[in-house]
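Page 47, continued from p. 46.
Same chain as before, 392 aa.
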Amino acid sequence: MSNPEVGTLLLSMDTFICPKCGNDNPIYLGVRNGHLYCRKCIAFNGAMAQGGLLFPKKVSFSISYSLSEDQKDLSHKVNENYLSRKNTLIHAVCGAGKTELVFEVISTALSKGQRVGFAIPRRDVVRELFQRLKSAFPSVSVIGVYGGHHSRIEADIVVLTTHQLYRYENYFDLLIVDEIDAFPFKNNELLQTFFQRSIKGHFVLLSATPSVEMQQKYTVGNNALLELFSRYHGGRLPEPIFAIRLFIFKYLFVIRKLRFFAQTKKPCFVFTPTISVCEEVFSFIRWFVPKGNRVHSKLKERPEIIDAFKDGEYQYLVTTSVLERGVTIRNLQVIVFDSDHVLYDQAALVQISGRVGRKSDAREGEVIFVANRVSESMEKARDEIRFANLHV
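Result:
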């Protein structure tokens, strides 16, 4: 490359703004065939949604249970906010029925011929939610878009991972984003940019554990914060029990509890902070408690194992955070192994606790934090759950 060309490129680097992600930091720029490109979002390539014309339509939806009065009231408020051109943050406890709270506003948007997106960080949850929305809105087209599944990217309702939002620039009239506090969306600048650039109209955010800063942000300006502390069936959130054990006694405690749950025919998740701990714990307890398995992000057969667990083939699963959200199992019990680990912050422990008691005919269950000590996050998680239960 000649010196004049080099000079031109250097000048361009100072003014370059990536049209896909908005990056203007030269440290993320590269050069290919004499042209600049953005290394920050280079992995995000593929077909882009074109946004053809949609027409207003009559839309109806079905819910498998009757909404509580609190749910109905909040659902109406979300709809009113959207019609008033307000963005909304819904702070609802685990098991409050957050998804059903947005069915009304989805129906309103579709009836106006508007485009609706429902984004979630994890594709496991996308697959499950896609089926729920397809069943709830039978008269409209619903598709799921995630890694390896994006041959069709446009429909009345697009259920997608937050990674796939890059395909939808200035596209969604209504965009709903669930689990905004979950990895990998949380604190991910690139995904946050895709989220902002995909919005043509307004959005609704859903979370059981929004940060204090997030809640404060949605009490000012053209935003709205809506809260729901009761579960859809009226039951209370399970309050965690602390079991402080050291060394081998942690394993022995887990084995004893799993045997008890097996005798009472109650399935159980044993959460672990890392993949290595997951493998280690399962390798030990499998010799003492049969009918178990483990799941984590590196296991390709994870969906099959989870389905087998739901069908009753396994009594327990040792798991990482992959089952922290979006899973509802009747009579589920939860053990959090090494709950004092640095990876378990307050929000994660609250989310994990929320896996228990989610069914109306099985509202009770045990949540046990097994640790070497009582951490600050453990105490804060318990305090948050107690606070929510005071408002039930």
